[in-house]
């Protein structure tokens, strides 16, 4: 199995690939937590962190034959986490910061179970940062954009497939920032940040137009978008979802809007409600519809 271990801190067309592979290859990504392993104890807070080396993404991977206008499909086959992770508050960040203090908590994750204070629940590992390189300016791996990045969707877990626009030759796939568990919104700016081993299969869909990443689960399709405000991110998601449903089902815009109005899914990925200066550092949402038996796939 092909294994990748090197890290990047931005999604960029000029990043040298760590490896290349053909479509259909199964690839192992060895990832660090979002702090790059800088937090060692619960006494470590944000003053101990070099924020220029956070959200490391393993890769990038050059996929042979990938060209602008294609779609890269990433089947998530497995996510195995370390035995402990970190939750931390970050000064000034998140909707509830004014009620909090700086605190770091080391959380045990053993045999698929999360241990938090006096409660436990099943771990549900998901990939926070995953994407392909943009054709234009680099995007820091802590931000999200039209080719992915720090989307923080808890639907991006084992068993899901994520589809990315390809804007540069080889696609340049990278991923990291696994969470052993994360609630919708990620209100304190962190989930259970944890090192992990990710195993994926990469596939190529030639010349299919996609404006935003799409996550496919067993029972639904989700468009993943971002925006400087929640409203912007949600609007973009509805517009792309409408386009995909119209193309797949052959319905007009009005019927599609009606269908989304009665069957649509709207969920927050990361919505910490900060003041954002750019789309890339803003909120991320997923806008979806259930899969329908007997209807075409939204992405072939």
Biggest pleated sheet:
9 strands, mixed
Cα gyration radius (Å): 18 Å
Strand line-up of the largest beta sheet:
1-5-18-7-16-19-20-22-21
Structural class: mainly beta
Number of helices: 2
Mean pLDDT: 97
- Gap between N and C termini: 27 Å
Strand content: 35-45%
Low-confidence stretches: none
Name the helicity range: 10-25%
Give the ordered list of helices and strands. Answer: EEEEEEEEEEEEEEEEEEEEHHEE
Number of strand elements: 22
Characterise the protein shown here:
The chain is mainly beta and 300 residues long. It is built from two helices and 22 strands. The protein has a nine-stranded mixed sheet with strand order 1-5-18-7-16-19-20-22-21. Strands 2, 4, 6, 12, 14, 15 and 17 form a seven-stranded mixed sheet that branches. Helix 1 crosses helix 2.
Question: Can you give keywords for this protein?
Answer:
about 40% strand, about 300 residues
Layout of strands and helices, then pairs:
Blueprint lengths: L1 E3 L2 E2 L1 E2 L7 E3 L4 E6 L25 E7 L7 E11 L2 E5 L15 E7 L2 E4 L2 E4 L3 E6 L7 E2 L3 E2 L2 E3 L10 E5 L7 E7 L16 E10 L8 E3 L3 E8 L2 H20 L3 H11 L1 E6 L12 E8 L10
Parallel strand pairs: 1-5, 4-6
Antiparallel strand pairs: 2-6, 3-13, 5-18, 6-17, 7-16, 7-18, 8-9, 9-10, 10-11, 12-15, 12-17, 14-15, 16-19, 19-20, 20-22, 21-22
Helix pairs in contact: 1-2
What is the gist of this entry?
The chain is mainly beta and 300 residues long.
């Amino acid at each position: 199995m092909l294994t990748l271990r090197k890290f990047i801190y931005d999604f960029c067309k000029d990043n040298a690939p760590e490896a290349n592979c053909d479509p259909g290859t199964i690839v192992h990504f060895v990832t660090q937590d979002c702090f790059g392993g800088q937090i060692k104890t619960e006494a470590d807070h944000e003053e101990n962190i070099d924020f220029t080396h956070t959200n490391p993404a393993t890769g990038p991977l050059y996929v042979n034959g990938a060209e602008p206008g294609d779609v890269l499909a990433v089947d998530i086959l497995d996510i195995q986490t370390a035995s402990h992770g970190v939750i931390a508050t970050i000064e000034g960040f998140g909707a509830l910061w004014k009620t909090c203090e700086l605190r770091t908590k080391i959380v045990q994750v053993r045999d698929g179970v999360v241990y938090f204070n006096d409660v436990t629940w099943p771990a549900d590992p998901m990939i926070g940062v995953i994407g392909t390189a943009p054709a234009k300016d680099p995007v820091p791996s802590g931000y999200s954009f039209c080719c992915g990045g720090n989307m923080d969707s808890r639907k991006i877990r084992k068993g899901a497939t994520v589809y990315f626009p390809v804007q540069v030759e080889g696609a340049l796939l990278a991923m990291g920032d696994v969470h052993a568990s994360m609630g919708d919104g990620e209100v304190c700016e962190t989930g259970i940040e944890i090192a992990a081993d990710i195993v994926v299969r990469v596939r190529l869909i030639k010349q299919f137009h996609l404006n935003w990443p799409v996550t496919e689960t067993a029972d639904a399709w989700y468009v993943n978008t971002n925006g400087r405000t929640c409203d912007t991110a949600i609007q973009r998601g509805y517009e792309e979802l409408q386009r995909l449903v119209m193309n797949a089902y052959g319905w007009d815009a009005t019927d599609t809007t009606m269908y989304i109005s009665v069957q649509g899914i709207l969920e927050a990925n990361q919505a910490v409600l900060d003041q954002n200066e750019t789309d890339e550092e803003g909120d991320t949402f997923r806008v979806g519809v259930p899969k329908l038996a007997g209807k075409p796939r939204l992405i072939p």
